[in-house]
Design brief:
4-stranded antiparallel beta sheet; single chain; 21% helix; 20 strands; 11-stranded mixed beta sheet; globular; alpha/beta
Length: 504
Amino acid sequence: MPLASLSVEGGFSWVPWVLLGSVMSLQVAPGTPRPPRPNVLLVYADDMGWGDLGVQNTESKIPTPNLDRLAAQGMRFTDAHSSSGICTPSRFALLTGMHHWRRFHEIVNAFGPSVFVPEDLTMAEMFRECGYDTACIGKWHLGWDWEALRREGASAVEGVGYAPGDFDWSQPIPDGPLAHGFDHYFGDDVPNFPPYGWIQDDRMVTAPTVPLVVAPRPTEGSPESRPGPMVEGWRQDMVMPRLTARVVEWLKEPVRTERPFFLFFPWTSPHAPITPAGEFRGTTKAGGYGDFLHQSDAHLGEVLNALEERGLTENTLIVFTSDNGPEAYAYERTRAVNHRSMGPLRGVKRDVFEGGHRVPFIVSWPGHIKPGTVSSALISQVDLFRTFAKILNHSLPEGVARDSLDQLPVWESKSDSIRQHHVHNTYPGVWALRKDHWLYLNAAKGTHNRIPAWYAAEESQAESEEGAWLFDLSQDLSQRTNLLKTYPTLAATLAKELESHRAN
């Protein structure tokens, strides 16, 4: 009997050896060869909305052929969630298997310290313990110990930031990716934060010598670039191409066919500044944002092709998702180009409504995950930690990945659902509890962004007169109808459960 939450698209047939994925977690007879451990590629988009994925939104104005191809090769989840509606907390939760709200809520600001403490075990550290080569190439945004480089007496000037000479750029930067499980790092930390330059492992490749000059101007929205030191000649439109080139270079190193790897590829796109490369400008009907995401999809294609060229595709597990929903520019995009980055969902980045944290989520693993499958199972990015641990047959220490659930039975089509509830939160004060198809939200507003008046009127989005919300998402995915007065007992029960989860 088919599982209620699964459907198969495109006429793909069942792969008869799909159940091999569970072999890794079973005892085998002495002398029996184990199946090879999979390489793991985790691709993490930045501010990509649920409705931006072409295969998920038939009305999308953005071509995403490579993401669509990945979905056709694996399983696409329609009810997947980041821990937060902003990036640093979601990245922390992803890598630790622990909800951000147990520790903090805000992002790491420019030159901010690491959010990790020595007791934290990251996903990368687990992979390294299991003999994997580990790398992070792209946006980090989890903090470093910049104080170790700051010269005595140097301080930031309001509106100007730090001067290039305020740091000794020849020194290593402690407490970054290399301190938390990654053997290699390459990236610019945060695309719109200083220092504007490349970091390789724990050192600046080139010392910043000039203050920020925004180049090029974004094709949509604001540059959103904080002032501070910059490498002379730095251009925002070269960031994603260079990151992708480094990923391809890393995959083509001879050792990739000799040892398993965990590669974390966190994009800097389509986050602002929205700066598509010249050859992608005007290639979509969704403005600069659409062009930027179309370019990012092409970069994914380069990476998928590199895996194929190296003969790594068949033994590589790929996960694609996003750190949160689309930036508030998405509102204007709906009337300017008739593209809904949030799809049918209410809210955008930062919001506790679904549009802030329900994100694209695709898993592909040849021979283990049924191609062309769509699952409506409730899942969270915190679940990746224990799912990977199960695949590696690795026992986690007590207290590690405390919020993570093993989703392998869902991936292997053996279960239609594992997770029964999920706590949604961005900043202190506004919280929601998802349980089955019900969602209780404890505030009059589920938004942290200012909604344009024209959009609020058009979408009939007002605050709750009752001071809280209750939604039946199986009937009301757009979160328009407040059922608090209709089911007061249920709302009270969920409110109590929410407080219990927060206190536990």
